[in-house]
Amino acid sequence: MGWGAILGNYRISNETSNETATSTSTPSTSSSSESTENKKDEEEDDAVTKEEKEKRLPLSKHLWQIVKLCGKQWKWFTAAYSLLLIDCILNLIEPALYSQMMSTAIQMKSFDILKKACLVLAIVQFSEATCNTVRYICMQYAERLTARNIRIGLFKSILHQDISFFDENKTGQLMSRITHDSESISNSLPVYIETTTNNLFMLFGSAPIMFYYSWQLSISTFITFPITLLMTKYYGLFVEKLSEKENDATAVSNETVEEVLSAIRTVRSFAAEKMEHSRYTRNTDAWFKISIKSVVVGTFYNYFWATMWNIEDVVIYLYGGYLTLNGRMAPEALLTYVFYHWRLHAALNAFSSLFSDVMKTIGSSRKVIHIMNRHPELDYEVGTETPEVVGNIIFEDVDAALKVAKKCKNAKMEA
């Protein structure tokens, strides 16, 4: 409820009743003004939502808009992703080195062979750590530059909007777009691209190796793919809608705080602390309900994935042991297959959460992209006539107060 409406209703009630109280308004007046203001807020929110839905970009175009925002720092991202490819190659070699080292130690072969295997593994891990360190520096610098550019671009777009835009959008909500939503874009998408590249490389690199060691075990591993992909698709679409609602609820809460703190003297003069506390509690409870819904759905989704992985692991171990005991698969091959199977599980598990995280980022960035692409109805920078600006500043009867300028009295300056 806006404090301008409360103040106006309060003055009207004072004029009609000729009362002298100046600290509180009557309950009927405050309740009627509150209901009227709430209706106006709902109508404005419906109008803004309708406009955004009409101009909402399709999913692919919206994602491309985010990529273009991050692509302005392509030099730093190129360096980071080049180092990422090197890291992916080293990650693909590691399971084979682990298998060689462990099989050598278990079978009690020559110590020189074990020492050589450990040395190669140490060199690979040191190279991987070096690449990750340099990649982290490049990635973080690029993300900070992207966040800076998005915030500046969003703020510039807001400044150039027509006045009706500020009537439809609350200050607190716009603050939430600049401070929270814009940063989530810059921090999320580069990480998602990095995770996608790493896990795709591991997926397409591990699959041929696993088929090489045992095509029977590989078929049993990949047979659950259609079910998991279908579940991930519907879960991601649900998370996108839920994320947009959650960000809207956060923006409403921020708008309430900004409105109350900016008019704290008016709130105190009307003794409306309890009323504003109740309003903020309602807005925060709305956000809490949406967040809990997201947690519940995410819990069932993660439980589904964990159950699928556990069943698949049991099948792999039983069938792999059966093949080994019947001489159809070497023990070293089974050990190597299990290591690559673990890496493949990690990659698929990352993909399961990656799609939902991408959809969550898309949901939180809808309003940001809409504002940045929104063109004002009247562009005040476009015109054909440039007025001649002429002005001057005149200082008369100037007396100097410095000791070194005692002679400067009643001076006149014109610029």
TrEMBL record:
Chief localisation class: membrane
Membrane topology, as annotated: Multi-pass membrane protein
Subcellular location: Membrane
Residue span, ABC transmembrane type-1 domain: 83-360
Domain of life: Eukaryota
Transmembrane segments: 210-231
Keywords: Membrane, Transmembrane, Transmembrane helix
CDD domains per the UniProt record, alphabetical: ABC_6TM_TAP
InterPro entries (UniProt xref): ABC1_TM_dom, ABC1_TM_sf, Type_1_exporter
Biased composition (Basic and acidic residues): 36-53
GO molecular function, a single term: ABC-type oligopeptide transporter activity
Name under which the protein is recorded: ABC transmembrane type-1 domain-containing protein
Naturally occurring in which organism (per UniProt): Caenorhabditis brenneri (Nematode worm)
Lineage of the organism: Eukaryota, Metazoa, Ecdysozoa, Nematoda, Chromadorea
